[in-house]
From TrEMBL:
<keyword id="KW-0408">Iron</keyword>
<keyword id="KW-0479">Metal-binding</keyword>
<dbReference type="InterPro" id="IPR036922">
    <property type="entry name" value="Rieske_2Fe-2S_sf"/>
</dbReference>
<dbReference type="InterPro" id="IPR012747">
    <property type="entry name" value="MocE_2FeS"/>
</dbReference>
<feature type="domain" description="Rieske">
    <location>
        <begin position="5"/>
        <end position="101"/>
    </location>
</feature>
<keyword id="KW-0001">2Fe-2S</keyword>
<dbReference type="Pfam" id="PF00355">
    <property type="entry name" value="Rieske"/>
</dbReference>
<protein>
    <submittedName>
        <fullName>Naphthalene 1,2-dioxygenase system, ferredoxin component</fullName>
    </submittedName>
</protein>
<keyword id="KW-0411">Iron-sulfur</keyword>
<dbReference type="InterPro" id="IPR017941">
    <property type="entry name" value="Rieske_2Fe-2S"/>
</dbReference>
<comment type="similarity">
    <text>Belongs to the bacterial ring-hydroxylating dioxygenase ferredoxin component family.</text>
</comment>
Amino acid sequence: MTEWIDACSADDIENEDLVRFDHDGRTFAIYRSPDDEFFCTDGLCTHEKVHLSGGLVMQYRIECPKHNGVFDYRTGEALRAPVCVNLKTYNTKVEDGRVYVEI
């Protein structure tokens, strides 16, 4: 069963950036796109479990800070080696200036 979790304020995330969100023993990354949309993925790289929150966000992509693997944060698709396993993605919504994630 899924539920909507209040993750952060929309103002906490600059355009083309992300914040780390920890909930119930899991880590997530919440992104704000150049088009002012919000997305959420697992917060650890699928290659070596490094926190993506230290990575570079640009043009709908997150680059892992350890080995520079790249994912499309909208779909979770692994785009550049060494990553080859996609990230899991989660639905988001914004209500009253708050970002909610469906977990």
